[in-house]
Design a protein that fits this description.
4 helices
Amino acid sequence: MFTLEKQTKRVMKKVAMPSEARRRDEGGFTLLEIAIALVLMAIVGLGVASVFVYAAKYNVSAGDRELAMAVAQQRIEQLRNVAFTDSSLAATPLPVTPTTVVRAGRQYSVITTIADFNVVNGQTTIKTITVKVIPKSDTATWATGVSSYFGAVMLVSERSATSLGPNRAS
């Protein structure tokens, strides 16, 4: 059982303790422990920051591919809406010269190739339209080379003549 006298003695003893004895009693962090903790936090922080940079870069690339797909779809629709005998659907000689299109402030290289197939009596009955769109917004050499393989969008469509072939009855 504690009495007031015992409690007073205990408090007085703590107050009268020399400062070195009090320091040994107190728990805390040393300067070395704090420095190590800061270094570890800096390493983790840099790792997290690099993930944010990576995510932002590939988010922009996804936007480029999305716009490239829209450009390719628009070009295919333009060619699908003209008459089968229109001059814009003439077979393209190789190599094809790319055209540059700008959408949302970004540049895209568009390569359109048209090939004639299934020629009957000198008349083409099927045309294959291929549209390849390559994002050109990133000027870094590695990005241009990579985007030409991974960032490019290619759409292929086939059109047929509306006239019946020679082996079909009307």
